[in-house]
User: Fold this.
Amino acid sequence: MSRTPLIAGNWKMNGTIEEAEERVASLLPRIATVEHADVAVCVPFTALQAVVDSTRGSQLGVYAQNMHHEPSGAFTGEVSAPMLTEIDVHGVVLGHSERRQFFGETDKALQLKVPAALEAGLIPILCVGETEDERENGDTERRLRHQVQEGLEKVPAERLGEVVLAYEPIWAIGTGQVATPEQAQDALAFVRALVADRSKEEAEKSRILYGGSMKPGNAAELLALPDCDGGLIGGASLDIEDFVAIVEAAKG
Ligand code: PEP
Assistant:
């Protein structure tokens, strides 16, 4: 099964609307002829509408960085899936480790968010990954099993392949410390095997990304791994030259 790689830039909480528009204006001509990969940017809520408008008709996907599972209600400060689809957002990052660590995001909440995103027509990117302590204590697989099984539990088996998974070792995010190709491949293959426990067919369709200090210098090696179907890129996605170099590295 050939899977189209996805290269997604996570801008996190960075930039004004004007800066977001400038960034996509620089990016669009650089990816206009890219056919080997899907390219997306995960944008702060305030800049989503502007980025959707300025990328209409292009192949750049526009993703949010979080959402609530309910379509509406008394949830002050939250944004729902229908609110994102109303402005033509394509997808949403769910369960990023920064949300788990700083905002109390739980696997139970993700169990509701992932199917809610799919039902609304958004592509969810479900992030999973272990801490440094968990890796050192030999708990990586236990942690990944819990996160993947809980996060996908309420997704119907026949839709599992529509969920993008991102394996992001927490110790590698924003640290410059990247997983070795062996560590990354083992974890990516393990995540795919967990999806296969629910549906072998869907697991072959699942795009599983690596995230954690992916840069132009290490991207080609990681993206060439048999179970790596792209990257979730934080820091390097704010630099257009670096981001475009990573998109190019997905060519193989
Ligand atoms: C991320 O935020 O998902 C990420 C992988 O960040 P960085 O590339 O900066 O490590």
In short: The chain has one domain: 38-235+245-249. The longest strand covers residues 123-128. The first helix runs from residue 17 to 31. The pocket of phosphoenolpyruvate is lined by residues 10, 168, 173-174, 211-214, 232-236 (CB under 6 Å).
